[in-house]
């Protein structure tokens, strides 16, 4: 399996674990890379994520990628950014007010190596 595919699998696993402790619906767990053919022009690749908890539609969806590998790499980078943002916010959780503090604290510790 290609390195980018392995990174996608690893990052989606971490992302799904992180969003599962707080709020998610099933569609937050699915990502697609699709080739589009339009108006007789050269085809391009784009990323589709129809989740509730991210702004991926405005961040990544509108970008046309010339190759599938470019789209995969863009998704890896987006997922990593989201993972870092979640981990940073989890580290700031106050156990007095946040009901998921124990899970958030555990995951922040488990994945602290991803924050660079």
How big a fraction of the residues is strand? 5-15%
Structural class: mainly alpha
Could you give the count of β-strands?
2
Structural domain count: 1
Query: Biggest sheet: strands, sense, closure?
Result: 2 strands, antiparallel
Give the quaternary arrangement of the chains.
single chain
Count of helix runs: 4
SSE succession: HEEHHH
Task: State the low-pLDDT regions, or none.
Answer: none
User: In whole angstroms, how far apart are the ends?
Assistant: 26 Å
Q: What Rg, in angstroms, do the CA atoms define?
A: 16 Å
Fraction of residues in helix: 40-55%
Question: What would your notes on this structure say?
Answer:
This protein is mostly helical. It has one domain (3-110). The chain has 4 helices and 2 strands. It has helices at 3-20, 56-61, 68-91, 101-110; strands at 32-36, 44-48. A two-stranded antiparallel ribbon has the order 1-2. Helix 1 runs parallel beside helix 3 and helix 3 (68-91) crosses helix 4 (101-110). The radius of gyration is 16 Å and the shape is elongated. The relative contact order is 0.16. The mean pLDDT is 82.
Write the layout of secondary structure elements.
Layout: H1 3-20, E1 32-36, E2 44-48, H2 56-61, H3 68-91, H4 101-110
Antiparallel strand pairs: 1-2
Helix pairs in contact: 1-3, 3-4
């Amino acid at each position: 399996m290609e390195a980018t595919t392995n990174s996608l699998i690893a990052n989606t696993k971490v992302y799904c674990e992180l969003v599962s402790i707080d709020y998610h619906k099933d569609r937050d767990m699915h990502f697609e890379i699709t080739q589009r053919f339009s108006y007789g022009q050269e085809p391009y690749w784009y990323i589709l994520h129809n989740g509730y908890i991210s702004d991926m539609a405005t961040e990544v969806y509108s970008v046309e990628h010339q190759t599938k590998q470019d789209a995969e790499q863009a998704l890896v980078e987006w997922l990593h950014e989201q993972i870092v943002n979640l981990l940073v916010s989890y580290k700031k959780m106050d156990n007095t007010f946040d009901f998921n503090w124990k899970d958030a604290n555990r995951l922040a510790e488990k994945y602290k190596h991803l924050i660079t």
